[in-house]
Write a structure and sequence with these properties.
Blueprint (H helix, E strand, L loop, with lengths): L1 H7 L5 E4 H14 L2 H13 L3 E4 L3 H13 L7 H12 L4 E3 L4 H4 L3 E3 L1
Parallel strand pairs: 1-2, 3-4
Helix pairs in contact: 2-3, 4-5
């Protein structure tokens, strides 16, 4: 939360995908309430610090290739889709907790 607050107060823009938001909001809803999650969704979608990327067909095909590549590591398809979008957008740093991103060569910011 502290890092997200600093990001919102800076000129830095974060990129995420609608797929990551879908997973995150469902997790939040199940851990709290759906109304709380909906409030968080409204704030995220209104944030100027966040750019929501919608993967295209090429990203999905690349995600399938990555899904196969990392099959022995049991990396989720959603993470592979994120990897594909991040590679296309030349993103190196990840705000997150999932070591799968380090496995794929990204720098994890915690």
């Amino acid at each position: 939360m502290r890092l997200w607050t600093r990001i919102q107060q800076s000129d830095v823009r974060c990129i995420t995908t609608n797929v990551v938001l879908s997973e995150s909001l469902t997790l939040i809803a199940r851990a709290t309430t759906y109304e709380f999650a909906a409030t968080q969704a409204r704030e995220l979608y209104a944030s100027r610090a966040l750019e929501i990327e919608r993967p295209d067909f090429r990203d999905e095909v690349e995600a399938i290739n990555l899904f196969s590549k990392y099959s022995d590591q049991r990396v989720s398809f959603a993470d592979c889709l994120s990897f594909a979008v991040m590679k296309r957008r030349s993103v190196r740093d990840v705000l997150g907790f999932d070591s799968d991103f380090e496995l794929a060569g990204f720098r994890l910011l915690r």
